[in-house]
Amino acid sequence: MSPLRARAPQFSSPEFRTALGMFATGVTIVTARAQDGQLVGLTANSFNSVSLSPPLVLWSLAQAASTMDAFRQGSHYAINILGADQQALALRFATRGVDRFADVDFVEGACGAPLLAGAVATFECFNRSRYVEGDHVIFVGEVEHCAHRAGASPLLYHGGKFYAEHPL
Predict the structure, then answer these.
(1) Cis peptide before 9 (omega within 30 of 0)
(2) Radius of gyration, CA atoms only, the chain
(3) Cβ(167)–Cβ(158) under 8 Å?
(4) Do residues 79 and 122 touch, judged by C-beta distance below 8 A?
(5) Any idea what the CATH number is for the domain that residue 80 is in?
């Protein structure tokens, strides 16, 4: 008996991407210090909690990303949840070929990963496990330190646009 498999998609990649964009998310910048000492970071909205005990979070990165080796080989990284006033920072860390850390205010976390000033929350993570799925790698981090700014408004992303949070 053959194993069950998903049916072939009945939509295009752009249609799938557009539909995914209808899920409103927060915006993060994932940062690390590579083994050669270089700072690496990228904008990501693929962040989620996994477990409270032990404290686990996840995020994903395209296998073709230029920062893949640094994150795959590194022992630690930080997830910085951006504030509503950090749209320019989100765009910079999503841009290729620029010095993403130029003039960026940060402090070094306990394990070397940059913690960005103004972030509404930070999670310093041990690089616990990685899972290859499709064209991405899912990183599961065990949170060793976390902090947040009470009352701070997050930066949100929906339908290809940035938004600031407004309570109902």
Answers:
(1) no
(2) 17
(3) no
(4) yes
(5) 2.30.110.10
Enter the DSSP assignment of 120.
Answer: S
Place 3 in a pLDDT band, splitting at 50, 70 and 90.
confident
Q: Which domain holds residue 60?
A: 28-153
pTM for the model stands at 0.94
Element (H, E) at 81: strand 76-81
Structure tokens belonging to residue 124? 């310093």
* Residue 21 DSSP one-character state: T
Torsion angle of alpha carbons 58, 63, 66, 68, nearest 10°?
A: 50
What is the arithmetic mean of pLDDT over 70-97?
A: 97
Contacts of 82 (CB under 8 A, 6+ apart): 26, 27, 28, 29, 89, 90, 116, 118, 119, 120, 154, 155
**3-state class (DSSP) for residue 92:** helix
155-158 and 161-164 strand pairing: antiparallel
Which residues, 6+ apart, have CB-to-CB distance to 89 below 8 Å?
Answer: 29, 82, 104, 116, 118
C-alpha 112/C-alpha 89 separation (Å) is 20
Domain membership flag for residue 116: yes
